[in-house]
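help with this:

***
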Amino acid sequence: MIAELLFLFFLFLAILLVVKVGFGIIKYLVANAIIGLIILWFTNWIGLSDVPYSALNLLVIAIGGILGVIALIVISWF
């Protein structure tokens, strides 16, 4: 009985840790995506690039941030 309770307690702690770390990563990706989309919108607005807004581009921007936007702009030129 004690072993099962300890198992459930440590399982709860592990799930709590995964959720906390997951939210930290998601907040980082959302911040990157917002900053990247603002930069991408501005470069599209001034005519520097013509990168479409798609799910794949959003993923690249969310993971890469400003470097992801630069990579998409360079790729759109070729």
User: Anything to note?
Assistant: The radius of gyration is 20 Å. The chain has a mean pLDDT of 88. Residues 23-53 form one domain.
